[in-house]
Amino acid sequence: MYNLKKTRNVNIYEQVGLFLYMLSQPSFVRNCEERFQHSGETISRHFHNVLEAVCMFAKDIIKLVDPSFRDTPIEILKDARYRPYFRDCIGAIDGTHIRVCVPSHLQGVYIGRKGYTTTNVMAVCDFSMCFTFVWAVWEGSAHDTKIFMEALRKPALHFPHPPRGKYYLVDSGYPTFMGFLGPYKKTRYHLPQFRTGPRIRGRVEVFNYYHFSLRSTIERAFGLCKARWKILGNMPPFALKTQNQIIVACMAIHNFIQRNDKSDGEFDSLDEDNEDIDSDEDESEVGPSTTTWEEPDAQSTIQMERFRESLKNMFPTRI
């Protein structure tokens, strides 16, 4: 199992068990010592061994189920709110900030908008709330657009580029060009703005509302992952590389649960279409590549804006 081996005192099942326990507990080391009756050294050794194995596993599970994107996602097909408009949409892209521990000489660049040190994690998500790409290496002060463009440009990252005619949903913090559909700017977009303002009317506002509603799948995925794995809110002072590996590992196990266990009742309220979950309302790579990347130009932006305009004109004038 991804190079995991039993030892004289700890079999593979217990190694995985203590690893999962440490991910899910806020005071992981002390609680784990008491729960499994092993020394801190034994627990630490097995934690790192399983972490390496799960990062290998991540390459097999943080990926596209259908790399060709032949079929419209079932979640869109069976939802009358999205089926007429977003049949060629293949997923959503966003970033989330996760608190990390860094040496004092790095704290300046890792301090993000929240005022503490974070890493800015970029991810792609499908509509079953599974991550299909994760890049967890950037400092908290890095802008979402910079990370996004770097991910698209680096062949070694194997970003799952959309084929011609397909597209991802992105928020207003990302550029709009062929393959990446953002909302209309200078118009209400996030759910709290719609809830506290006047009735939604006009096709631009209606488009933004449905765009946000569908794109919020990735925000719910971030929220669900953070709710499951408390370590993401209380990262231990490991080496920064190890902390980034923990983030990827949590998202890999999240995918495994999403695809194999629908009976996780404790998290049903997070797993449902609940737009209240916002991992970042303001705002180690894994995943396959499907299409050759071409640098966008002005024409690419114009074409996507025209597509958005034609899509907007399909919507009703009010909700």
Automatic annotation (TrEMBL):
DUF8040 domain span: 2-55
Amino acid composition bias (Polar residues), ranges on this chain: 287-302
Subcellular location(s) per record: Nucleus
Biased composition (Acidic residues): 266-285
Start and end residues of each stretch annotated as Disordered: 264-302
Domain DDE Tnp4 as annotated: residue spans: 93-255
Pfam families reported in the protein's UniProt record: DDE_Tnp_4, DUF8040
Cofactor(s) listed in the protein's UniProt record: a divalent metal cation
GO cellular component: nucleus
Example GO molecular function: hydrolase activity
Nucleus keyword on record: yes
Keywords: Hydrolase, Metal-binding, Nuclease, Nucleus
InterPro entries given in the database record: DUF8040, HARBI1-like, HARBI1_dom
Predominant location category: nucleus
Family to which the UniProt record says this protein belongs: Belongs to the HARBI1 family.
Protein's UniProt name: Putative nuclease HARBI1
Source species of the chain: Glycine soja (Wild soybean)
